[in-house]
């Protein structure tokens, strides 16, 4: 049986490694020194700064794929960031450059010029875009480590980036953490961003950003727990001249209240709660949410018409509709005390009958029912017919209503003649 012969080993022999296989040591401070030295030679000319950055990215010693994080920190803050947001030191010496957003972007126009540097850099080195999104998640939790002036400049360029899509809008909520909320750093930073967006793109862009970022439903989280009140949110927005945001949030709150009211109304109707009690509950909700009577009557119509299964046969649905609506005349009457509410109701009926073709021939009969029960007045019906109707199905409904309108006008004329004789 043959035995395996042990191969001789060579002592003192060094295997030669190919140069391309040698892994370079990661050296962020070396990259920092290289970049800062290069920026020092460009002055404040942003075109020259970009040209230097573009050329530097091709150097094998300091590939941006490895040093992208350090690159972005230097261009934004002026140096490498230590935990907490301060500039990293060499011993006691702070190593930084003035060719950065924090030091050089003293006006919004200059911030926009720096924005173009970043955009061109991202186009040239596409992978930096993902790095910027990740880096901003870190920088935005260091706000307390920056001066108020630097936070303001950071807010301005962040505003440009989230609106243009250079970084995702949902990056912004990372500012919400206890140490930045307690002394209003996070709040003021977000307000600066919103104010910049308003100045640059207008109020609609601010609303869009609130939605896309998720801040729309988190604004209260920018305040300490004992100050999370609607009034504090409102007053902060007004102080930042963001009245359009206040109006938008009020509308959203109003819409939410309406949904709750409609849900409650449908539940009460489907469970056959007494009409008097429904009226009382609805009046309280209208008052509490500062709604108009005309808004309430729209809800009533929608809830009443949704509370039953309608016959699919056109010739049978009329009888069913009139019988169903008669039950709720007191409810409609309680919320049509003004001509405006009446007009909203008749147009709502018109819209419903047009959108639901089975009801197309029911319109004039429903209006007649509401007229006879004094939910709709003669004056409002005539005004609606003359110039206050909506376009939907008007030709059809005009023909349906002609005889009734002629009768109303004749009755009105007779009434005027009798008044003249007296």
Structure description:
It is a single chain. Helix content is 64%, strand content 1%. It has helices at residues 28-40, 46-56, 64-77, 101-104, 108-124, 128-139, 148-164, 178-181, 185-201, 203-213, 230-239, 243-270, 275-288, 293-305, 314-326, 329-334, 339-355, 363-372, 378-388, 394-421; strands at residues 89-90, 93-94. The protein is mainly alpha-helical and 422 residues long. The longest helix is centred in the middle third of the chain and has 28 residues, at 243-270. It has a two-stranded antiparallel ribbon with strand order 1-2. Strand 1 and strand 2 form a beta hairpin. Helix 9 (185-201) packs across helix 10 (203-213).
Task: Record the SSE blueprint.
Elements: H1 28-40, H2 46-56, H3 64-77, E1 89-90, E2 93-94, H4 101-104, H5 108-124, H6 128-139, H7 148-164, H8 178-181, H9 185-201, H10 203-213, H11 230-239, H12 243-270, H13 275-288, H14 293-305, H15 314-326, H16 329-334, H17 339-355, H18 363-372, H19 378-388, H20 394-421
Antiparallel strand pairs: 1-2
